[in-house]
């Protein structure tokens, strides 16, 4: 590319980095005169810190991470924005074979149904406590992650206290299967392919999936330092267009085999391509020889999957407040909301007439079926988007929602 504009972009070895990787590998970035240098990292903390010190201009990032940075919850906090989402869904909860056996003895069925799995886990925890055994240890990829908040949401909705009935620790995604095999942890919540890998190695079993805890729910985003975005708006706009086109390509079922091949490469995930097919097809294997179809397991382009909904940001914020990461105030809520920037997304994609919502926020969990929504261009379908416990999050009633989850809740 003559006079191409260079950008260094960080990513973690998870399948939901595919939009950034496809933007580079399939020429969508070069179409925008961008030369993307992809840098694979080993931990989310490193991703966060390298954005903060300017090593990366943009990165594959946990959905809550820009919010936590802007609230000053990171030791190396730097202002960040999320101008684009990268996917919906894609995570699962895997447990050790020993814990799985205990759950089976307490009525668990390998159907990925979150209510039944939660009941069996609660009974297993009670039995272990009666035997004087230590609390179960679950791993998440980072404390300011969708994984942490969805695991906690599922546990608490099933009557299990995430703070007293189990222990939750942070472990990098690619280390989770090894930690499970060595008995360092009893289970974990992570994105693919690290759940399927444990089943394939016969060291773990998948008991629940994000797509059934909260269907079509937010996961990874494109994270960018705010000062860089302010000074390089043309570059950011070009990156968003390249990523949007890449998302359309990745989300096309006709490209599944090629996409799996790209992502399996050593410089990306470094795994066998067959281990990526369950996520791409939605045919999940919770145990060897068992296949459960999961609709919308991973959504890359449909249902406005790339739109940075401010209601998603506020739901993450509500969980930060719920679990003691920060105190609630009108100022903090505004910081969280404005960490997601649909205005930048719209402006960048306006030249290519991309279909996008007319609103910046929506009620989460209210759609039981697909529904066409108002758009600025084209046609767009959202939903279903239900929480497994039937609850609804209305961003206009934020304090009421937080209070419903926190007895004795009081604002700052």
TrEMBL record:
Name of the protein described by the UniProt record: NitT/TauT family transport system ATP-binding protein
Gene Ontology MF terms: ATP binding
Organism of origin: Rhizobium halophytocola
Taxonomic superkingdom: Bacteria
Broad class of the protein's primary localization: membrane
Keywords: ATP-binding, Cell inner membrane, Cell membrane, Membrane, Nucleotide-binding, Transport
Intracellular or extracellular location(s): Endomembrane system
């Amino acid at each position: 590319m003559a006079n191409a504009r260079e950008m260094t972009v960080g990513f973690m070895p998870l399948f939901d980095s595919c939009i950034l990787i496809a933007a580079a590998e399939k020429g969508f970035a070069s179409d925008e005169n961008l030369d993307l240098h992809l840098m694979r990292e080993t931990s989310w903390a490193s991703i966060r810190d390298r954005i903060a010190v300017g090593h990366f201009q943009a990165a594959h990032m946990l959905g809550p991470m820009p919010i936590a940075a802007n609230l000053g919850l990171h030791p190396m906090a730097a202002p960040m924005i999320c101008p684009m989402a990268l996917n919906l869904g894609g995570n699962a909860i895997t447990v050790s074979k020993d814990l799985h056996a205990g759950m089976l003895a307490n009525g668990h069925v390998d159907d990925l149904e979150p209510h039944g799995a939660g009941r069996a886990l609660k009974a297993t925890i009670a039995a272990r406590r009666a035997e004087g055994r230590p609390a179960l240890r679950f791993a998440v990829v980072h404390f300011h992650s969708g994984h942490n908040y969805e695991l906690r949401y599922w546990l608490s909705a099933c009557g299990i206290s995430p703070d007293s009935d189990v222990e939750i620790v942070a472990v990098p995604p690619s280390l989770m299967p090894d930690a499970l095999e060595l008995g360092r942890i009893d289970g974990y919540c992570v994105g693919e392919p690290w759940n399927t890998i444990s089943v394939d190695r016969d060291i773990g079993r998948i008991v629940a999936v994000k797509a059934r805890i909260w269907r079509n729910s937010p996961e990874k985003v494109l994270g960018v330092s705010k000062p860089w975005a302010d000074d390089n708006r043309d570059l950011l706009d070009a990156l968003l267009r390249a990523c949007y086109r890449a998302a359309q390509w990745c989300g096309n079922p006709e490209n599944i085999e090629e996409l799996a091949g790209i992502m399996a490469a050593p410089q990306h995930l470094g795994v066998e391509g067959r281990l990526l097919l369950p996520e791409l097809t939605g045919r999940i294997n919770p145990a060897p020889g068992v296949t459960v179809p999961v609709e919308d397991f991973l959504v890359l382009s449909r249902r406005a999957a790339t739109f940075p909904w401010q209601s998603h940001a506020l739901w993450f914020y509500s969980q930060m407040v719920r679990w003691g990461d920060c105190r609630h105030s009108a100022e903090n809520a505004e910081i969280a909301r404005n960490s997601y920037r649909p205005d930048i997304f719209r402006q960048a994609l306006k030249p290519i007439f991309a279909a996008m919502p007319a609103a910046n926020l929506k009620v989460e969990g209210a759609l039981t079926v697909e529904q066409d929504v108002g758009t600025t261009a084209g046609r767009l379908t959202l939903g279903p988007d239900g929480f497994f416990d039937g609850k609804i999050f209305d961003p206009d009633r934020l304090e009421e929602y937080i209070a419903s989850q926190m007895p004795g809740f009081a604002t700052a």
